[in-house]
């Protein structure tokens, strides 16, 4: 690890502090997309948000470069961890996404016509959902305050994937990089083999884990938190159906599918080919920074609240995003998540790029 010191440290921390406002990029790009479409009547503009995320961001991240510097643990960790700015920035993403979702449903149902134009718009909403509802929801459900966990659950409910709140914390983080984890992709497994199995098993496992919790604590079935979160999803869908009809409900469901679809693509990327060793006692070694792929491209990291410092997150899951660290000893992705998603969609290209990296990493570690 490389620890920053002195003025360079302060300047980079200040840059990152306000660069996290890039979370506004996708909802603002949707607003710009709609305004340009209304002005020009050219459906091309309805693709603006995914074009920014999957074309502009990958280009800019290569130009801006990497960030492998870390905070000073002794002098900065406690202060940064307690600053309310970082906490409220992600909590307020819940009402932000709700407003964006409502505006998106209105435009989809009453303004935008033609299936190609509507497809572009709902894909833009799903991309925004992946960046805000899924990514920020993931950060919040790990935290130790009721308000943060509640906001995280609300965000996940807005994309109909509330089971992630249970399964990710009590399933994925326990079994990551082992054969017991459906969210850890195997060496040689394609995205198209991984994705449906991950969605199905993670959803079913969330219900199983909640059932076990209720039985262990002798609680009634209605204390199952998934009932509440999926009921919230149903209420949101019902409201959209009442206000905007079938188009409103369709918009809500499809943007959800796209958003949590991206989540499982990222899960595929984050642990591909990595494995925890099974010990003589039958248990797996403790999770450490070698069991997740790390990516230190600065632009994508601030856009995603340092989700790409995933190695540190799995080793220390309650560390807040602003103090996550880069580890040189972690396996390193060749690009940020936006680029890696595009590569993962083409299995021969993915295997050609990633398989040698997995093999080389373990050859060097042995």
UniProtKB/TrEMBL annotation:
Keywords, alphabetical: Cell inner membrane, Cell membrane, Iron, Membrane, Metal-binding, Monooxygenase, Oxidoreductase, Transmembrane, Transmembrane helix
Organism ancestry: Bacteria, Pseudomonadati, Pseudomonadota, Gammaproteobacteria, Cellvibrionales
Location relative to the cell: Cell inner membrane
Domain Fatty acid desaturase: 114-341
Membrane topology: Multi-pass membrane protein
Protein's name according to its UniProt entry: Alkane 1-monooxygenase
Recorded superkingdom: Bacteria
A single MF term (Gene Ontology): metal ion binding
Gene Ontology cellular component list: plasma membrane
Family: Belongs to the fatty acid desaturase type 1 family. AlkB subfamily.
InterPro entries reported in the protein's UniProt record: AlkB/XylM, FA_desaturase_dom
A Pfam family: FA_desaturase
Membrane-spanning residues: 20-38, 44-64, 85-109, 115-136, 226-244, 250-269
Any Gene Ontology biological process: lipid metabolic process
